[in-house]
Design a protein that fits this description.
The protein is mostly helical and 196 residues long. It is 94% helix and 0% strand.
Length: 196
């Protein structure tokens, strides 16, 4: 029983370390990078020189590369159908966002900033809010998984501790009985025989 409980604790800790916490970390990075992308998009619209525009585009390319890497890592960490569904919806919303992003960048490059701003503040903001909510749902789901594993670990620990304490008490009682038997049941009769 104790070994089984220790195995359960180990599995729960391993699951937290290799699934829940890394999933939360990568989803938070994804969420942050999509926010960073929005900042660079705004910088692109507000740019007044080709150099500023090029810098914003270089920053967006760097962010999108890192975002893609985090999405690929996160895909491998998905551990339930519910989480897979959230991720599928996130990716669909983000793909729609990137189509609008490409239109917005094209408008901004042509200095059609009023149209680019309308797109940025309208459709793109709505899509951003929708996929950000999906990312928050993924974090919440993984937090719940981590809490569940933690609760099971605490329960297994408590059961193992109780079992081990009971085993120690039982062993102590058996040892005392054996000792008393040795003193009263064996050594006294031997003592009587040797005195006689």
């Amino acid at each position: 029983l104790a070994l089984s409980s220790l195995r359960d604790i180990n599995n729960n800790v391993k699951n937290e370390a290799t699934n829940w916490v890394p999933s939360i970390d990568h989803v938070n990075k994804i969420n942050t990078e999509t926010s960073d992308l929005r900042i660079e998009e705004a910088a692109h619209i507000l740019s007044t020189t080709p150099e500023e525009m090029n810098e914003a585009e270089a920053n967006m390319a760097r962010i999108l590369t890192s975002l893609d890497n985090n999405l690929q890592v996160y895909d491998k960490l998905i551990s339930s159908d519910e989480e897979r569904g959230i991720n599928t919806r996130f990716r669909a919303k983000f793909a729609d966002y990137m189509k609008a992003h490409d239109r917005m960048i094209d408008l901004s490059r042509k200095n059609q900033n009023a149209e680019a701003t309308d797109l940025f503040k309208g459709v793109m903001r709505q899509l951003f809010n929708e996929y950000s909510e999906l990312a928050n749902q993924a974090v919440a789901l993984n937090n719940e998984g981590a809490k569940s594993d933690y609760a099971m670990s605490v329960e297994s620990y408590s059961q193992t501790r109780l079992f081990l304490l009971a085993a120690v008490v039982f062993s102590t009682i058996v040892s005392l009985i054996a000792m008393l038997f040795a003193v009263f049941g064996v050594s006294r009769p031997i003592g009587r025989i040797t005195r006689a």
